[in-house]
Amino acid sequence: MQITLNGEPRQVNPGMTVAMLLEELSEATGRDPRGVAVERNLEIVPKSEHAFTVLEEGDRLELVQFVGGG
């Protein structure tokens, strides 16, 4: 199944949730998935819904990593 992630096409398994995608990306990049905001089809996905939001064919996701500093 194909989605668009930050403007790039990406294949994901059917039934994958936002939380599962974040965990997969975290393993690949070493970044903490807790500091990520997720927009799906122009709507913010609340953190409390990441585990229950199942990705669908054609979804467009934008992920933003929060960075601390001053």
Automatic annotation (TrEMBL):
<dbReference type="InterPro" id="IPR012675">
    <property type="entry name" value="Beta-grasp_dom_sf"/>
</dbReference>
<protein>
    <recommendedName>
        <fullName>Sulfur carrier protein ThiS</fullName>
    </recommendedName>
</protein>
<dbReference type="InterPro" id="IPR016155">
    <property type="entry name" value="Mopterin_synth/thiamin_S_b"/>
</dbReference>
<dbReference type="InterPro" id="IPR003749">
    <property type="entry name" value="ThiS/MoaD-like"/>
</dbReference>
<dbReference type="InterPro" id="IPR010035">
    <property type="entry name" value="Thi_S"/>
</dbReference>
<dbReference type="Pfam" id="PF02597">
    <property type="entry name" value="ThiS"/>
</dbReference>
